[in-house]
Amino acid sequence: MSQFRIPGKGRVKHDEKVTFSFDGRRYEGLRGDTVASALLAHGIHLMGRSFKYHRPRGPVTADSAEPNALIGTSRGAGRFEPNTRATVQELREGLMCESQNRLGALSFDLGAVNDALHPLFPAGFYYKTFMWPRSFWDRLYEPVIRRAAGLGRAPSEVDPDRYASRYLHTDLLVVGGGPAGIAAALEAARAGVRVTLVDETPEMGGSLLSDPEVEIDGQAAWDWLAAALDELRARGVRLMTRTTAIGYYHQNMIGLCEKLTDHLDTLPENAPRERMWRVRATRVVLAQGALEKPLVFHGNDRPGVMLAGAAQSYLHRWGVKVGERAVIVTSHDSAWHAAFDLAEAGTKIVAIVDTRAALADELRAEARVRGIEVLAGHTVTGTRGRLRVASVTVNPVENGRVGDPRMLHCDCLLMSGGWTPSLHLFSHTKGSLQWDEASRTFLPGRMTEDCHIAGAGRGLWGYLDALSDGAEAGAAAARALGHAVEPTGFAVAHDRPGTGESHKELPTDRRSHRVRAFVDFQNDVTAKDLRLAVREGMRSIEHVKRYTTNGMATDQGKMSNINGLMIASDAVGKAPPEVGLTTFRPPYTPTSFGAFAGYKRGATFEVTRATPIDAFAEANGAVFEPVSLWRRAWYFPQGGEDMEAAVARECLATRGGVGIFDASTLGKIEVAGPDAVEFMNRMYTNPWTKLAPGRCRYGVLLGEDGYIRDDGVIGRLSDDLFHVTTTTGGAARVLNMMEDYLQTEWPDLDVWLTSTTEQWATVALNGPKAREVLDGLVEGVDISAEAMPHMSVAECRVAGFRARLFRLSFTGELGFEVNVPARHGLALWEALMEAGKPHGITPYGTETMHVLRAEKGFIIVGQDTDGTVTPDDAGLGWAIGKKKPDFVGKRSLARPDLVAGGRKQLVGLMTEDGAVKLEEGAQIVLDPDQPKPMKMVGHVTSSYRSATLGRSIAMALIEDGRAREGETVHVPMPDGVVRAKVTSTMFYDPDGERLKL
Amino acid sequence: MTRYSAFAVVKNALTGHKGWREQWPDAEPKKEYDVIIVGAGGHGLGAAYYLAREHGITNVAVIDKGWLGGGNTGRNTTIIRSNYLYDESAKLYDHALDLWDGLSQELNYNVMFSRRGVMMLAHNVHDVQSFQRHVHSNRLNGVDNRWLSPEEAKAFCPPLNISKDARYPVMGAALQMRAGTARHDAVAWGYARAAAARGVDIIQNCPVIAIRRGPDGAVTGVDTAKGFIGAKKVAVSAAGHTSVVMQSAGVRMPLESFPLQALVSEPVKPVFPCVVMSNTVHAYISQSDKGELVIGSGTDQYTSYSQRGGLPLIEHTVAAICEVFPIFNRMRMLRKWGGIVDVTPDRSAIIGKTPVKNLFVNCGWGTGGFKATPGAAHTLAHTVATGEPHPINAPFTLDRFRTGRLIDEAAAAAVAH
């Protein structure tokens, strides 16, 4: 048995041993222990080193607010995490723990030299130094600062664990499983409300777990608790332990992080480590209790100095005495109860030192009964002990004068500066906080969400108040949900309500600059630092926080904010609310990235959209490229071809015979309704009224600013039905834009918009033999050149499938695009491949598609345009319906700078040496010899080797480009200047003869 | 102004640091100023500093509704770079970068400008084309920016995952070595201290209720929570709330305000040497000198003035970080927060004159205002002092949305085909 464990006491399983290691040494603990409670049971308080001064530190709390006892935890490869709170991490078999932020051993840390030099490192010293000589910042100062900072080491391996996420809808969410939360859940559940109750710890009960002496409704606290939880379960309340409400978002959405495996000895197969819940609750009860405040005095940070409430928890929950000789220093009654409980457990209480001169008679009487010395009206002026507190100096205070010191020997010092409501989640909602002068604390003010706050969160100490208030909050929530209910009353015996007073730093007889009284333990912020910040003009609490880093440690100010505010407001000379409280931000406690990411990792990071024909590409060795969410076949290499060879082959085969291309990713939108044509007229630049059913037109879509947003061929199937195609990446954006206009600008139009991208599989056939391939497969329409000219559309059957057949071309060859229901896409493809076999049909990918279209000067929106290109700039002026009264972007096209000279226009570029291919994105200048910064007149938008032409071709946006046709421009590259001639963008078959087949 | 130095720190250590004076006085408003700047962020305070230092105009007040540096100056992810595409932007941000260099010495306040390099990842062919265009353009503009292969990117930033099997594999990166980060609060404080030392009044917790105009339409001053304060000229530099302030002068601004979220992890020892940005997966990350991973998110999808963001966007951001840097999965988020960014139709800033005589505006910085701080402040000061824009901010007019001469950086990279 460990020296400090009390046999049989606490809620741990005394018959179930668990072994773990700390800094390489093996220890034994009990099932139900935290790392902190297990180490304390072995008499170990020293668990870490502070951030700046590397001072030795031990746990100051028994909960998630812990600033000091941070350790690295590991369970093997890939499963290491730094900065784990030893007070929260449950023991599991084989858990490996290490201390952090030390140079050498934890007990002999060379980094502690900083502590000796502390006068040189006051708050904000780094803003005043490290500026000379200037070059030293990059090379010396910053690297040294960076190495010194940080706590634990980052993980270095990929995390093998999984994470999950879920949605939950509930009538009432109760946050906090203490007495107020349980009472609220009971009340609401009895009224028939669907309730979810969450608590961050492994066990519901909150402070009741540390106060077994209390009696509720005639039952011992723990019996009442067990019965209450049974009833909640029986009533169908969802009880979630190890579940932290991390953030409170708009409209009662709460994020919960549930820990599932960190406490288990062995990892279950395929179970997620953590699960993020997005909860939408109709009502919320926040019953998060209160946080105990440390007292601020010289040496309040040594190992062995801890909150009195924490010592009480270690005793009752884990059966651990935190020391043999304790001194209590307090300004609140609650610490007295901790002292009495510890005394009963056998710890020698050297003295109860209370800052208050006037004390309740009952407390004095109880102390007397136990033979405990009481020092009222006293202060603490210092502690001693290198790695553990060994003594404490106390002095009487009379009329503000600090009297003679007296030294008390001890091995632990238990402090309490009173309690402050935990209002973090309430603060996330931007609810206002109100300063309560009587209790000198902030209480919840105006609410912005449908929530109730109960218990200690409203400044109500004591069990009767907490239970009654919880029940009232539960009843109020039930009433708001339409249930009639009157809250139940409670009878509580041995209640411990308590009062206290609130302090800035305790009075001292030391010279003020010799006092090192810590406010933020982890970040080593002292009261002196806070006063320095104020002296330097930091009068807002936000400035004080940022200048000193007070409240910015991993406990996010749970330990330090209120003490910091008391000291800062005293220094400023204003009331605390005028100095203000910093905003609490989510998450409530540090939450793993994995939990936020959830299942969105690797292949499921974002969905990969694959076409119905993807399996063919996969089976035929295609190389893929990602295009927005899609993966598209890029090219189909054969027999060891590289990309260039494959693309050249695919191009030549298409121009010489027939190529087949999977165009299913093209966006497709069905525009239907009596006003469909009017809608199209208003959206696109082109005129649509006279487009006959059965015909197609290339449409251009602009933004309000007059710049090209999207394009595509649009077929009119009937008077009131258009089949619109968009770019692959633009599909969702175009539909959103259309819906936006339809719903907000033109609600008078009778039009329906439907995305059909995934309903149709689209296969393009291009090349002089395209019709021959198709001929035997088409039923119901004549596809001869006369009956179905270029830019036609027909509904028919292809290969036996219902189809929308387009005759159009993005290659300059005779072309068809066959749309069939997506489920038949692969069968259609295979039928076309089979029919094309005699003609040498060749599958091609997106790269060949790009080359073929560039040879014809067809643009790709987003590549040859960049959001600053008008139709005229792109050579598409012809696509603007000149007589139309309006269309999106029309007004902008008339703006002065859009009609001025000097606009960049899309032109062709031919390098003087056809073997040289320009780089896409390369910049164009007129004078290559000018100094930098050079005057650039444009850039290369597209550039390819054209197998058809036997040379390179490029497209470029160049200032006044069309007027420069025939001129030579220069492209300065790192390894020399490339000369190129400005040409038309039509490199191949300029008269379109090949379309006439 | 007490001069800051290591020597001064040592000297003060001997007297318990009692000798330090306030860095800037908390001023009460005078009756009238030559110039009032609305908004005490880095831009506004910097403009006051440059007005005093470069133009000799010291009868200046900077007024803020809250505490100085409390808006986006204190909420951003501190990335500084200048590798922008268009000449106009490249010149402006490079001007800022020139001023960042040596700003600590100039202000005698260590703003910790850290030239650790900013690397932008390309995840698809479109990104490659777009970044190559930036690299080429920057090279000819004399702006530092170079192209890295995936392997070179990994060597520069070891936590990077360059597996070809990633959902969005890294296909290369553009690196600006001269870029980096700075300590954001120190920028506001440093400018405040240096401006105050030259006579500028900094008036905090004093909301501006309206901009007042005289019978001739020109600005006469501002109505504030502390009463009317006269001014010959007024410059508004109020980020997400600029549209509200300008409305009071009868100027409707082409701005939309969105929440923008950011977060930090718990602090760890150095693990991340540079800044990495990925537009495609929407992730921005660096490690602060304190050891926290500093991560930026995209703007929320809805316009808002509330400094709260939603959960889904943060989930996406963190997922993106873990996708690109899988070793960070078990790191923990310490804190996340939101700021309000003001976005113009072309997502470039407005610095210059307004239709109202003697009223100037600096706004529309969207997600990128911090890096511009010295440049924006410097050119705004020039514009206010002389009544005409500096050549560097001349293209960034309010008028361009009428004439159409947009500077659309985002559009140049945004459309996937």
UniProtKB/TrEMBL annotation, chain A:
InterPro entries: 2Fe-2S-bd_N (IPR042204), BFD-like_2Fe2S-bd_dom_sf (IPR041854), FAD/NAD-bd_sf (IPR036188), FAD/NAD-binding_dom (IPR023753), GcvT/YgfZ/DmdA (IPR028896), GcvT/YgfZ_C (IPR029043), GcvT_C (IPR013977), GCVT_N (IPR006222)
Oxidoreductase found in the keyword field: yes
Gene3D superfamilies in the cross-refs: 2Fe-2S iron-sulphur cluster binding domain, sarcosine oxidase, alpha subunit, N-terminal domain (3.10.20.440), BFD-like [2Fe-2S]-binding domain (1.10.10.1100), FAD/NAD(P)-binding domain (3.50.50.60), Probable tRNA modification gtpase trme, domain 1 (3.30.1360.120)
Gene Ontology biological process terms from the UniProt entry: tetrahydrofolate metabolic process
Oxidoreductase listed as a keyword: yes
Domain Aminomethyltransferase C-terminal: from-to ranges: 904-989
Family: Belongs to the GcvT family.
The protein, known as: Sarcosine oxidase subunit alpha
Domain GCVT N-terminal: 617-884
Region annotation Disordered: where it falls in the sequence: 491-510
Keywords per UniProt: Oxidoreductase
Domain FAD/NAD(P)-binding residues, every copy: 171-437
SUPFAM superfamilies, per database record: Aminomethyltransferase beta-barrel domain, FAD/NAD(P)-binding domain, Folate-binding domain
Domain of life where this protein originates: Bacteria
Stretches assigned to the SoxA A3 domain: 516-598
Basic and acidic residues bias spans: 493-510
A Pfam match: GCV_T_C
Any GO MF annotation of the entry: sarcosine oxidase activity
TrEMBL record, chain B:
Reaction(s) catalysed (UniProt annotation): sarcosine + (6S)-5,6,7,8-tetrahydrofolate + O2 = (6R)-5,10-methylene-5,6,7,8-tetrahydrofolate + glycine + H2O2; sarcosine + O2 + H2O = formaldehyde + glycine + H2O2
Lineage, opening ranks: Bacteria, Pseudomonadati, Pseudomonadota, Alphaproteobacteria, Rhodobacterales
Record EC number: 1.5.3.24
A Pfam family this chain is assigned to: DAO
Source organism per UniProt: Limimaricola pyoseonensis
Key word Nucleotide-binding present: yes
InterPro entries in the cross-refs: FAD-dep_OxRdtase, FAD/NAD-bd_sf, Rhodanese-like_dom, SoxB
Gene3D superfamilies noted in UniProt: D-Amino Acid Oxidase, subunit A, domain 2, FAD/NAD(P)-binding domain
GO cellular component: cytoplasm
Name of this chain's protein: Sarcosine oxidase subunit beta
Stretches assigned to the Rhodanese domain: 35-79
Protein family per UniProt: Belongs to the SoxB family.
